[in-house]
Amino acid sequence: MAWNREEIINYIKDSRSLVLATVDENGFAQLRSIGGYGADGLQVYFGTAKTSGKVKQIEQNPHVALLFQHEGQQVPKNVTLYGTAAVLGEEEFESGAAVIRERRPQIAFQKEESNLYRVDVEKVKILDFGSETKIKEVRAEELRRTTDSGGSK
């Protein structure tokens, strides 16, 4: 199956959680599962406590990867987004929290205790062992262009 932008977005929205990859101060990859996330198109938002290790790691290196994989699949599939995480300022905090609460209404973020991040996606990788092309990578810009011009990829 050739995945188009809408199929990628739906796969992300239908995932229970994401796996966030950051890099620690020693250059080692750090992975953690995050359930408190939301997506607006290909932009993903997530929150964390200001005291978490993720905050320091993102400050040192904002390049992250987000892996989405549905549970119980018969044929392995997943979507990985690669991009830059940016902490949301005062003006964006509430709109970012609203995107996350669309998925997880029970989550409340306090500005004094939490950082919210927006990941600006640069590249998308699709792994689908049920398709002829098992791995496909596409620049996020290409996916945005196909929507703007009315086509699909």
Describe the structure.
- This protein is an alpha+beta fold and 153 residues long.
- The protein has 4 helices and 8 strands.
- Strands 1, 2, 3, 4, 5, 6, 7 and 8 form an 8-stranded antiparallel sheet that branches.
- A hairpin with an 8-residue loop joins β5 (63-68) and β6.
Short key terms for the protein model shown above:
globular; eight-stranded antiparallel sheet; 153 residues; disordered C terminus; 39% strand; alpha+beta
Query: What is the share of helical residues?
Result: 25-40%
Task: Provide mean pLDDT, rounded.
Answer: 90
The dominant shape is globular
Structural class: alpha+beta
Q: Brief overview, please?
A:
The protein has 153 residues and is an alpha+beta fold.
Secondary structure elements and pairings:
Layout: H1 5-14, E1 18-23, E2 29-34, E3 37-40, E4 43-49, H2 53-60, E5 63-68, E6 77-87, H3 90-103, E7 114-128, E8 135-139, H4 140-148
Antiparallel strand pairs: 1-2, 1-5, 3-4, 4-7, 5-6, 6-7, 7-8
